[in-house]
Amino acid sequence: MVTKRTNLKLTPDDKMKYEIAEELGLLDKVTEHGWKSLSARESGKIGGIMASRKKAEQNSPSRRKP
Questions:
Q1: pTM higher than 0.85, yes or no?
Q2: Which structural domain, as residue segments, surrounds residue 47?
């Protein structure tokens, strides 16, 4: 992932956010103009998908203890 600040390490949440932005076709907009350039609807869509994926990860059988 290329960010404006190349010396920053991306957290797992940041990586997920970039992946979702790419899937939604928003990555170019984010890399050129930053996260502030997204509309509330676009930001909410990314946040909703992130929440869904985190919930799915927590509920996956591989994460449960026997």
A1: no
A2: 12-57
